[in-house]
């Protein structure tokens, strides 16, 4: 299934609809960047084309792009590396100001830099924004959720919700390109239903069009079906049976909040999926979690639909095949104990790797879960357990294996031995250094790595990690998880 929002993402600023003034201001900012050298914040609701506009701008200007998450602590290093590369390119081309050598840095989630482990993150980004040798576009939903220092350091451009009047022609174009007949009222109804959010309008159009040559107003209205679905039926739909699109519809029919649905899917997915599928699914669950975080922070419940997209359609799309049979899903996720365990696990990962809590939770933990699924390979699971000093509940949580099984108990015992061996080996003070070891070529924190179950990231050598400039990997040359083998 090709996602139409990707397929029809604007490739030039002229294709970005409904925000002409903002669009022109952005083009002007880029053209005059050499004169002012300021970063710009592009802010507004989700799904109205902010990120697309930034990419389209780069394409219009002939600039490369690098997209990073502002709340990620390693962002600064990555930007500096890109900046260095750009400067080098400029020297090679004999031009120090040539616009073709620019790299547009797109910093997503600029309004989301907070949390204990991100303390100071905002001032770090502010510093970066002030000193960067490359143009930076910060993307935010809420301008005033950004620190004052950061706001003051940037120019600002507001993107407004896209009016239904501007949404209809986008939908019409897509229908024509897809060879899909339509009633004008159907497109109008979709535009009206999505109040300003062009991305969700395109998503709805694609969902309604599936399996049809023509869409009518009735199809759109009937799309809002009134059917109640039980949780196990929903889990079967997402984890075993239905296409991404159908799973999404089913999710809409369950009488539970996306928060609860995410917990259920997160809790049960490892009972059904193979490691590769699991790695992909966890990435979507991490996205769902991110949207739920935004709902909590902003109380804007319109973000729920993006959580649902991820937890239902995304997780279903992560499957390699459909499955039949009956699965013993067990009871409701034990949130209180599980949450506590998860928090401890995440904290250990964050402390060890020097990540923010959110990076540890969204990116490193899913990756570890995928590579040690059901404690396989065992050696790696022991190494992980030793490295993070996990106990049986932690190992059970990360690997999806039962806490009281002999397997988990013996892994924790072996890990204990491994740690002791290492203490002996490093006797004479070296053990102190182990306290702040980090994973070599810290790819565990990268979304890319998290999806790539085949890549033996934990063993990657420094050189390959360092040469991969598109990744936010940092290597401080210290010992790491691979030392535990
Ligand atoms: N103004 C627009 N013009 C054309 N297409 C748009 C526009 N806004 C959104 N879209 C469609 O929606 C998709 C998502 O848009 P985009 O990611 O740029 O939104 P955003 O405002 O950056 O959202 P978020 O805050 O969630 O990152 C695009 O790929 C495109 O298909």
TrEMBL record:
This is Replication factor C large subunit. Part of the RFC clamp loader complex which loads the PCNA sliding clamp onto DNA. The gene is rfcB. One of its GO terms (molecular function) is DNA clamp loader activity. One of its GO terms (biological process) is DNA replication. The lineage of its organism: Archaea, Methanobacteriati, Methanobacteriota, Stenosarchaea group, Halobacteria. ATP binds at residues 44-51. Belongs to the activator 1 small subunits family. RfcL subfamily. Pfam families: AAA (PF00004), RCF1-5-like_lid (PF21960). Heteromultimer composed of small subunits (RfcS) and large subunits (RfcL). Residues 36-163 form the AAA+ ATPase domain. It comes from Haloferax mediterranei (strain ATCC 33500 / DSM 1411 / JCM 8866 / NBRC 14739 / NCIMB 2177 / R-4).
